[in-house]
């Protein structure tokens, strides 16, 4: 069934002179290009583009698209990514002409619907986080982290405080220390215990008056709700520092607890995780942030505001009058497409529904954990939040089968692999997050598949996958000697 | 160098101490256990010659197909020599971690951090517990 011919590189399929269409002879006077553009703007020769007929191009991309895994075609328990189903009604809503066909330079009076939607979304996100001020501008989760750290830096600058340190647990997402460095801070790693919790002794040894921010993920990346969260927040606050909550794992706590209530001063959301915006393609994404009242004035401008005049419909506008703002971090209002999907998702579920989303996500993860732990131990224990990290360490020692072997073999069974080798605090990690949108049947089938794989011949596993177009690319050569151009 | 004669940091760097005129110089690398845990290496950012480092300060970075990891200086002092050819010969780290795979030499300015280093047996014990 697989079409190997048409999935070759377009450059390899190219034949000189082949065309998708031929234009009729030009029936207006032709102007030489030299008379239209200055010499410096004209290329010496035309770019070497592939020359192909339309059916070849269609077959090329259609066949390639079927070689990919997506949440619409396969179970995708990729931990930390919350690969839940993306309801199709949200796609339809985001495509409505009144939302999808707007131009950002339209007068505000003609985009009141969009502004009302964005205003409400700011309010919803603030309510869910327990942090009263919100900016929708950041274009991705990590961009939200960076924006929030700039907000923190502006806050300290305004107070005349020189604070340099950002504490980050060793189980954090790699974006945390990267954001801290980009915002001009130095990062200090805080150890975590075997249980997955922050090592309070190490935390206290590194906490001093230079602390700017403690960046914490809660629930953390091993799927544990930080047992000393309140204590950590109190001690950081006592030193004048701020708590940043990495909101990647919000799917575990919607409507159950709020970061603002457990001590966070700032957080980002990943709407493509928690609120079902589609993943993939590298964007366009969004990473809205919410902050406490005392940080509100430093948020990026503009913010959507609402004015209620007596007996008149409310008027929405963009507020640029924010003298303490760190300024723009994104053009216009951010990537509204994914924000509209988040809005639809939140409105569809409502407060009680969002709570049920989290309860079901946690229940599904615990059910899967209870089935998997018998053959792939879960070092952090019998209970988890929305995800858990199993370890193939024993299998590696006893039979030479690694987490990577299991991950690759799962592709043969038509399931995307869990996240592997993260967090680094768990050896041979397999981080599984089933999400609330999977049925018991899917979870049972996945657990049985995993069990079957752990019993298979190690040789078969070392060379898996056996059914995909490409088996194991040479990652070392790809990183060290990358081929970045077509050299055919 | 014989791994049995080296000192080790809890963060998996090895240290060989050499008496030089009027002081001590440490040759630093990473242990075979560390190299194995990192899996296939693709890049190393070596420390700069002449920079000063505090004990346990990150002064080098290795990237594997899995992740980017910091390498910490087990001693305090000044980087006097760097194994620059290593950047293009990362296989030395796995083939000869205690020889050709050395990373840098640091002229020690403070002896105190040396007391926190482990001997070979203690380090082996720590690795066994971690594994």
Automatic annotation (TrEMBL), chain A:
Its catalytic activity?
N(6)-[(R)-lipoyl]-L-lysyl-[glycine-cleavage complex H protein] + glycine + H(+) = N(6)-[(R)-S(8)-aminomethyldihydrolipoyl]-L-lysyl-[glycine-cleavage complex H protein] + CO2
Q: Which gene encodes it?
A: gcvPB
* Sections of the chain in a coiled coil: none
Q: Which GO terms describe its cellular component?
A: cytosol; glycine cleavage complex
Q: Which domain of life is it from?
A: Bacteria
Q: Residues in domain Glycine dehydrogenase C-terminal?
A: 358-457
Species this chain originates from:
Botrimarina hoheduenensis
Which molecular-function annotations from GO does this UniProt entry contain?
Answer: glycine binding; glycine dehydrogenase (decarboxylating) activity; pyridoxal phosphate binding
Against PANTHER family, the record matches this protein to: GLYCINE DEHYDROGENASE (DECARBOXYLATING), MITOCHONDRIAL, GLYCINE DEHYDROGENASE, DECARBOXYLATING
| Enzyme class of the recorded protein, top EC level | oxidoreductase
Q: Which residues form the Aminotransferase class V domain?
A: 151-280
Which Gene3D superfamilies does this chain map to? 6.20.440.10, Aspartate Aminotransferase, domain 1 (3.90.1150.10), Type I PLP-dependent aspartate aminotransferase-like (Major domain) (3.40.640.10)
- InterPro entries this protein is in? Aminotrans_V_dom, GDC-P_C, GDC_P, PyrdxlP-dep_Trfase, PyrdxlP-dep_Trfase_major, PyrdxlP-dep_Trfase_small
Q: What is this protein called?
A: glycine dehydrogenase (aminomethyl-transferring)
Automatic annotation (TrEMBL), chain B:
What are the GO cellular component annotations? cytosol; glycine cleavage complex
**Cofactor requirements of the protein:** (R)-lipoate
- GO terms of biological process kind: glycine decarboxylation via glycine cleavage system; protein lipoylation
Q: Which residues form the Lipoyl-binding domain?
A: 25-107
Residues where N6-lipoyllysine is found? 66
Q: Does the keyword Protein transport apply?
A: no
**Cofactor binding note from Swiss-Prot or TrEMBL:** Binds 1 lipoyl cofactor covalently.
What keywords does the record list, in alphabetical order?
Lipoyl
Q: One of this protein's Pfam families, by short name?
A: GCV_H
Q: What is this protein for, i.e. what is its function?
A: The glycine cleavage system catalyzes the degradation of glycine. The H protein shuttles the methylamine group of glycine from the P protein to the T protein.
HAMAP family, A to Z: GcvH (MF_00272)
Q: How does it assemble?
A: The glycine cleavage system is composed of four proteins: P, T, L and H.
> What's the family?
Belongs to the GcvH family.
Please report the name of this protein according to its UniProt entry. Answer: Glycine cleavage system H protein
Which organism is the protein's source?
A: Botrimarina hoheduenensis
